[in-house]
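User: Please predict the structure of the protein below. I'd like the answer in structure-token form so I can feed it into my own downstream comparison script.

Assistant: Understood. Taking the following sequence of 149 residues as input:
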Amino acid sequence: MFSQSLPVARARVSSTAEIERPSADPGGLEASLLQLIQDHHQTSLKLRDETEKAKKEAIRTAMRVSDLLVDIVNGGVQEGFINEKRIEFESRALAATVIRFAKQTHQWLAASHAINTAIKEIGDFENWMKTMEFDCRSINAAIRNIHQP
């Protein structure tokens, strides 16, 4: 039945200890060490680049946050400054109005003082006129008494 025989496989299977164990070949060890150093160097460069990118991104983000905070603070300061200017303008206008009213009040006081003085003079003149009228009547009565027989 099986007249034809198959060839027998003659291969050697390496154990895991033999695979992991470094070879005694000095060129292979150096090549492995050089490969490890190159891998380490490439990994370090990649990590340094990633770190630099992250640093730059963090700086950009911090600057953006800083700008936003400054804008918010400046907005409040600007509003306060505008209100201060508005209050200052209104206080100047109020001071001008007060000065105008003070002048007008002074004019009214001067006018009322002049009226009072005029009224006093009229009263004094009226009193003087009454005194003169009385004196004239007295003189007239005295002259009549003298001329009457």
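That's the full token string. The radius of gyration is 61 Å.
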